[in-house]
Amino acid sequence: MFQAYGKRDGLGGCKPGRALDRGKYWRIAKFKMWIRGLAAIGGGILIFAFLVLVFGSPDCDTSESCREQRLDGAFGWLVRWFEPESETVASVSVKTKQIPAAKSPQPEKKSTQAPVSSLIQMSVDSLLPEEQYDILKWNLVGFRSGNVDSVRGEDSAEPKEGKLKLINGGFVELSGWAGHPAYGMRFRDVLISLCGKVVGRASVSTKRPDVGKAVHINLIQSGWSARLATDLLPRCKEQVLQVWGVAPIGFNIFSVIGKTKIIYDDMVRPDIWKFIAKTKRLTPAENGLAKLRSLEISASNLRLRKCGDAQCDVVGHIAKGAHQGYVLESVADWSLIQVGELVGWAHGKFLKVH
Asked: Is 11 within the bounds of a domain?
């Protein structure tokens, strides 16, 4: 007979108990057996899943690193299986292969020269170094025939104390007017010199009504402007920019008021400009020799005037007959001629050129 122990009384003894029912006892025993069986099946399933995760992944080879990845995945799966959702569980420490940290890339040294495709193209009136030549190939005439109105560097800076600071890789811009103020002889070109060399050339083609009104009526179209690349300029001890007006014919060039002394800034900066020099040099031979012409005067005493107009002042007279001289310029019915020391404008009605 099965007999259950009774409950203890307060004096250390036992109260008599009741005998347990045999059917009830077997039902309890069967329930426990089912629980153990289910636990064994669940454990087997967990072990099988673990083995599949570690050894049966089709996306992994048999290398050491792959096995370590499998273990890490399996342990992580087990931890997540038993981890309560509301609690934070410490991560499982798994020995893995140490991967060296990637070295941070070192900053590249940037070149101060911009790619050619990104440079800004700019036309300049400079002569290339191989095209520059000695200014003394010309006959330098000191008679002032024009003015440099403006000289500016790339940063629009003007000369200070007679000196203009230029930036390497930059440019300098000049502008003004040129022409013979006494007789209104127009120039087609101006030359720019530096260090005794001709370094630039610009055409005289801009209208300057202010000059025509204040200086000479024939110099309405006397304006010019030039841009020079500083890297194409020569270097010397005395660096002074000088502009010269070129006579229409011959080898005379006339000084233009406004010399500028230049200095260079040592600042190094990235290249910005791509300069294009298309200017062709002009030499005395290319300008054309002044040819002595035969001039036949039909008037008894031909008046030479300051400009090509009957209202202009008379500056001299030429007697009737044949003379040797030069024709410097012609405008409409008037010609600027030179006979000996006399220079002035003569009307074509009384002048015949051979």
From this structure: no
Pair of tokens at residue 7: 């409950």
- Do 175 and 204 fall into the same domain? yes
* pLDDT tens track for 265-306: 877 666 777 889 888 999 999 998 888 999 999 999 999 999
For the stretch 29-78, pLDDT in tens is: 777 787 877 887 877 777 766 665 656 555 555 555 555 565 555 555 55
Coil, strand or helix at 234 = coil
Instruction: State the residue range of the domain holding 141.
Output: 116-287
d(CA 200, CA 281): 8
Please compute, for residue 140, the number of CA atoms within 13 A of its CA located in the half-sphere on the CB side. 16
- pLDDT of 80 above 70: no
Phi/psi at 291 (5° precision): -90, 135
Q: Token pair for residue 192?
A: 């720019």
Query: Please, are residues 131 and 244 in contact by the beta-carbon 8 Å criterion?
Result: no
Q: Does 94 reside within a domain?
A: no
Burial code of 60-88, b = ≥16 C-beta within 10 A, e = fewer?
eeeeeeeeebbbeebbeeeeeeeeeeeee
Residues in contact with 147: Cβ distance below 8 Å, sequence separation at least 6, in sequence order: 176, 177, 256, 257, 258
Residue 96 pLDDT: 44
Does one domain contain both 75 and 167?
no
Q: Which domain-ending residue is among 287, 314, 344?
A: 287
**185, 179 Cβ separation under 8 angstroms:** yes
264 - beta bridge partners?
A: 166
Full-model pTM: 0.65
